[in-house]
Design a protein that fits this description.
Length: 256
């Protein structure tokens, strides 16, 4: 018979930020560099995974719209099992664990099993993408309210999105690329102007980052024509024009 461990391990729910390893918190980097077991999402950049020791056991639980390596209940059980076997587990997530990262569900599963949990926040995808594109999510002249929504939620057409975007507001949509046409139709039906400016930010904070700008009515075409793929965020609101001004200034300065 195998002997039971003298202690249970700790599960660390760690935010990996938007992709650039330089944007990790010091706490996240230190934990990763001494990791025993790393359970990571598919969107975590390989350069961040490479920070773990060669001896670390790397377990991918990558998810996509069409396929999940493990279902969420199975991931919860995996974290608990590894910790109860005495391992410290780094649960590495893109962005922040508690912003559309299902970190709350994983923490609850660990608490129910008597497993210690520590949450290490990361720069959220919305914050990282907006900063990389130099789009201020709030601005005294344009927006004092920011809303975050998931674009893959069930029953999209039945939800009331009125007031989430418009004058004085910024709307950031996670996981909305595959449903971009339905999102635009929904927002317009709920009263938002078809001319509302927006930006689609793909691969934020990475060398392959793209910032595509357009208007709400043309969102689906913008995504399709440019073959946008995840990870990508949609930012809707007047603030999306601010990044344009900053980029133009940078171009002019470079020419001079």
């Amino acid at each position: 018979m195998t002997q039971s461990p003298t202690r249970s391990g700790t599960v660390y729910l760690v935010g990996a930020g938007p992709g650039d390893p330089d944007l990790l918190t010091l706490r996240a980097a230190r934990l990763l560099m001494r990791a025993e077991v790393v359970v990571h999402d598919g969107l975590v950049d390989p350069s961040i995974l490479a920070m773990a020791p060669r001896t670390a056991r790397m377990i991918s639980v990558a998810k996509s719209r069409a396929r999940h390596t493990l279902q969420q209940d199975e991931i919860n059980a995996l974290l608990v099992r590894e910790a109860l076997e005495g391992h410290d587990v780094i649960r590495l997530k893109g962005g922040d664990p508690f912003v559309f990262g299902r970190g709350g569900e994983e923490a609850e599963a660990c608490h129910a099993a008597g497993v210690a949990v520590e949450v290490v926040p990361g720069i959220s995808a919305a914050m990282g993408a907006a900063a990389a594109a130099q789009i201020p999510l709030t601005h005294r002249e344009n927006a004092s309210i920011v809303s975050f929504v998931a674009g893959q939620c069930k029953g999209l057409s039945e939800q009331n999105w009125a007031g989430l975007a418009g004058v004085g507001r910024t709307l950031v949509i996670y996981m909305g690329i595959a449903t971009s046409e339905a999102i635009a139709e929904k927002l317009i039906a709920d009263g938002l102007s078809p001319d509302m400016p927006l930006a689609v930010i793909e691969n934020a904070a990475r060398p392959t980052m793209r910032v595509l700008r357009g208007q709400l009515a043309g969102l689906a075409a913008l995504v399709a024509d440019n073959k946008v793929k995840s990870p990508a965020l949609i930012v809707i609101g007047e603030v999306t024009g601010r990044g344009d001004m900053m980029e133009l200034k940078q171009v002019l300065e470079a020419v001079q």
